[in-house]
Amino acid sequence: MVRNIMVVGLLVGSLLVAETANAQSGVVLPFTGPSAGAARNVVVRAARDHLELIPKSRVSRAARELGVNTRSATGRADIAAELNIDYFIAGSVRGRQTRLRVYGADGEQLARGNARRPIGAAGRADVARVVGELLDEAIEGGGNRRDREAEEREARQRERDERRAALDAEEEEALEEEDEDEPRTGPRSPLATVNMLFGVDARTRDLAVRLTDGRRRNYEAGIHPDITLQLQIHPLATKDVARGLYAQLDVGVGVGLSTVERDPSDPAIANEVDTTAWRFMFQAGYLAPFADDKARIGVLLGYGHDRFALGDNQTMPGASYNQFRVGLAASFAGYGTLMQTRIDLGYRFVLSAGEMATAFGETINGGAFDVGLSVGGFVESGFSYGVRFGYTRYSLDLAGDATDFTAESATDSSVNVGLQLGWAFE
What we know:
Helices cover 28% and strands 48% of the residues. It is an alpha+beta fold.
């Protein structure tokens, strides 16, 4: 009886030793594209059933030490020899597909395939299925090469031992902390490369002109809708210091506007006046990133036009401003990409004022102060949103002869509150 137990024990021990000796290692490299983090996490979980996974941080460290990268076959081969890696798994998310590739220790491709985008349970299950099939194919086809490459890897590893020993202890500790977070991916920028938003603003307008004889000319538009478009562009959203480059276009067109003018001599007489309003502002500048893009602060320079036109009337010619804007912007992200709060402050130098300048004076000088507050964000599928508030006030000085009545000064202010919906591209 005792002899039988010893025999069984020896057999089990032999099997365990053989299994350990035959265990093959691999690494799941960082993925690219929208939903890259979700796709990689699925692949990590599926690959653990086939391989002993090495943290990607160790691969990054080895690549820096060797001066190579995982995008080339020779780079992968050098890293494989350094860390004794048998398989590399790479991938990207493009459109509705997850593209998967498996490379061997020599850096060459062993298997490839496509799965669905890792959205929802069905998408994640499809990614896990395909990576399992690819690993089975790669392991079956690459098993014969493993023995032939073993001696080569050992020789290369001996050559790298001295370099690895020279790593700073502090860096080692930081990398170990990063390993504890595996399989989580690195920080993701809360900003989209392109974010296009359409919506509606509720807007008001209050225009007042003070004449030299002390009288005033006033025009007040109640709350009216503006159809709006906003385009935000971070052309290098995730690439080094250049990711602070930024551009923005805002367009608004008033709809459903109508104005009624009362005859000063007989208020009972009212005339309807054609009214149109539209505006645009293009800005570009640099928003310096802080704390993994969770905060950005910077300066924007822009050119815009703001027109509020009235048909024939006896009160006000309307307003038409060409302007140059200098602004400050600060944004703060929360909940990943789901919420970003932004504050804008700016001053607009009025370059010309259209009909107002000729109707109330020969020359016009001044500018406008504006302030804005917005909250927006987007989800992995691409849907984006924005809620915003803004206030703008022009203060103008008029002088010289006029075709209507000579004026001293004018103010023009507006308030807008709006909701926008759209699509973000990472």
